[in-house]
What we know:
70 residues; flat
Amino acid sequence: xxxAENPTDNKGSYTITAAACAGGNIASCFQVTATPNSPxxxxxxGNITLTSAGVRSWGTSPSNSDKCKW
Length: 70
C-alpha cells in the first residue's frame, strides 16, 4: 500500500490480513496472510502465511517449495 492508495480498492497484487492463530488468542499468537488479488495469480505459492512464531507456509504443493522460499 502506498500513501495515496485506498486499501479497500484492492488494486495491489495481494490483500494482507491478520488473525489469531488457529485455536489461539491473538494476544499470544497471530498470523498474517497475503492472498493474491484477481487478476493477479501466484500459481507457484498461492496464499503466503507468516505466524508470530516465525512459521512460514504457502498454499501450494511441496513440489513448488523452491519457488516460494522467503
